[in-house]
Amino acid sequence: MARATAEALDRQHLPAKNLAPVKRLPNAPTRPARRVAVPKSTKAWQTRAANIALAWLLPVALLGLWYIGTERGWLSEQVLPPPAFVYQTLGDLVSSGDLWLNASASLQRVVVGFLIGSALGVALGLAMGLSKTVEDYLLPTFNALVQIPVLGWMPFALLLFGIGEPLKYVLIAHAALVPVTLCTLQAFHEVPKRLLEVGRAYGFSQRQIVTDIVLPSAVAPIFTGLRLGFTKAWLSLVVVELLASSEGLGYLIAYSRQLFQLDLVMAAVVVVGTIGLLIDRGFEFIERRLNRGRPVKTGRLA
Amino acid sequence: MSATRPLTTQHVAQATVQPQDNGLRLENISKHFTSAGADTQLHVLDNVQLDIAPGEFITIVGASGCGKSTLLRLILGLDEAFDGRILLDDKPIRGTGLERGIVFQDHRLFPWLTVEQNVAVGLKNAPLSAAQKRETVREHIQLVGLQDFTESYPHQISGGMAQRVAIARGLVNRPSVLLLDEPFGALDALTRTRLQRELQHIWQQEKITMVHVTHDVDEAVYLGDRVVVMQPHPGRIRRIVDVDLPRPRNRSDARFIALRDDVLSDFAELS
Ligand SMILES: Nc1ncnc2c1ncn2[C@@H]1O[C@H](COP(=O)(O)OP(=O)(O)OP(=O)(O)O)[C@@H](O)[C@H]1O
Ligand SMILES: [Mg+2]
To answer: Membrane-spanning regions, if any (chain A) (predicted)?
Structure first.
């Protein structure tokens, strides 16, 4: 069958081709596939809406449980204030300006700390990724040091940096540094050998291999590291503020717990969670944009 | 009289054969793979010897795993751990070079580049202006019939289309030796036949030396000046078949069929 087609095609008269060394190439005789504009179906947004609804199911159920629990008096109001009360406290926090004061203090710390930590992390990961020697020197020590949690460094850091802002920056930066460094290094280790060979075949210089193959294939994993690093930074921020500060969301939680104002604790927790989630969503959005040229990462069974 | 007759340009051309036109020479190529951990060595190529004239079209057929891709990798210069010598224009090859191009068996496109940008990779270090590069890339995308997909990313096109992009990328910088590793394997019969003809046409125009690996004996006889039949364990040349038929060849010609059946019978013996 295929042979018959091949023969038929061979027999088709080919116009005598000019064999002079002209570079112009003949047009494709077969009809190439064409793009056709298709009106967007309504199916897509329906599934999207369904997915969003599913995502809200659990939080709404928990909120309902919380509401009923306090209504029925399963737990004392001192331990678990009712949702309406927490909502009201949240409103007060906003209108008094306390929320903004504490949230901006926290955000500033996390942004500065994260920027320092992730910049160092990317630089460190790049250095180790580009040079095996640097990696051999640094990685074992790095791996040993990262086993020590933030709280473990705390007493030492307190002596070294005092209780002021630098302490917080250093600890938050440290939290972000670890995942960013490791993800950056990992990205370098996972550059597909097949693509590096393509670069060699087309005479890429060492610099072109780095800028045109290694970095593009490392961008997405590095970004995943940044996202992970931010989560770590945000989590350690609250810990650091709980222990040593006079403003910030972590401080708000610690302070109101001492005063036994659990509604305020709950309100602050909600704010911490919401800000963290929003920023993580932002990262995810950018990550998806960066991945636009790639296949969807993994398949799903169902 | 005849002694004083001036030489025609053709004679001059014949008299001054360029010293670099000595083609590609494979001398006693042997290749072993040592697997990590195990002490055993895998003997993949055994004493492969082949002289390829400049501008010659060599096709290689052979059972899966007999070392065809490995041989192409050696010629390309990606792997320098082998015994024997590979000479191009009488000089041993050292590493990769722009004068040797390849279309890999797996298409190996860059996932973050569009079809157009992927083809342009072939011209990255070519001595052309940006406008010339754009025009050449456009022509080659048209050659493989993908002009409506220039902005698509590799994951948005089919396997056969990706293979065609890889073919365009391999051809675009017109290397003097082009290595093709089953370039038409993933294509439908129609597209394959058309690209076989286009490849032959480009080869006739540009005098590229072709080393073309294929599983399709029909294709090997259709395209090759010589068909190299390889056999496995270890990979070596079993036979070299001259295809002395005028081009373009007619697949239903008795001589064509006889040659094809001859090569096919080698496979029957092997298995
Ligand atoms: N990097 C490697 N390490 C170890 N063994 C290898 C490696 N590459 C290839 N081989 C072995 O070499 C042999 C030949 O492989 P090769 O890819 O050259 O075969 P091939 O003739 O191209 O086969 P196919 O027609 O299926 O593409 C195989 O047995 C394979 O297992
Ligand atoms: Mg192969």
So the answer is: 49-68, 110-130, 142-163, 169-188, 233-253, 259-279
Rounded to 5 degrees, what are φ and ψ at B25?
-125, 120
What residues have CB less than 8 Å from B108, skipping those under 6 apart? A194, A195, A197, A198, B166
Q: Is A247 left (phi over 0), alpha (psi -120 to 50) or beta?
A: beta
Distance from CA of A283 to the nearest CA of B (A): 19
Q: Kindly report the CA angle at A253 between A247 and A254, in degrees rounded to 5?
A: 80
In the beta sheet, which residues pair with residue B241? B227
User: Domain extents for chain B?
Assistant: 24-99+175-270
The number of residues making up chain A comes to 302
What residue's CA is closest to ligand 1, atom 22? B69
Chain A residues whose CB is inside 8 A of the B96 CB are: 200-201, 203
pLDDT, tens digit, for every residue of B195-246? 888 888 888 887 889 999 998 999 999 999 999 999 888 888 888 989 888 8
- Rounded CA separation B156/B159 (Å): 10
Is the minimum CB–CB distance between A19 and chain B shorter than 8 Å? yes
Amino acid at B238: R
With H, G, I as helix, E, B as strand and everything else as coil, classify residue A93. Answer: helix
- Pair of tokens at residue A66: 């919380």
- Asked if A2's CB is within 8 angstroms of B189's CB, the reply is yes
Q: Searching chain A, which residue's CA lies closest to the CA of residue B175?
A: A202
**Looking at the DSSP assignment, which residues form a beta bridge with residue B83?**
B30
- What integer pLDDT is reported at residue A171 of this predicted model? 86
ipTM of the prediction greater than 0.90, yes or no = no
CA distances from A144 to A138, A162, A172 (A): 10, 25, 19
Q: Which atom of ligand 1 is nearest to the CA of B105?
A: 27
Question: What's the pLDDT score for residue A48?
Answer: 79
Q: Which of A11, A203, A216 sits opposite B97 (nearest CB)?
A: A203
* Ligand 1 pocket residues where CB is under 6 Å: B 33, 42, 44, 62, 64-70, 105
> B24-99+175-270, what's its fold?
Rossmann fold (3.40.50)
d(CA A227, CA A234): 11
Residue B147 sits at the chain A interface (C-beta within 8 Å): yes
The residue ranking higher by pLDDT, A2 or A228, is A228
Share of chain B above pLDDT 70, in %: 90
Give the pLDDT confidence of A51-84 residue by residue, as tens digits.
788 888 888 888 888 888 888 878 777 777 888 8
The contacts of residue A80 (CB under 8 Å, 6+ apart) are A66, A69, A70, A262
What is the pLDDT, as a whole number, of residue A116? 94
Domains of chain A in start order, with CATH, are 88-290 (1.10.3720.10)
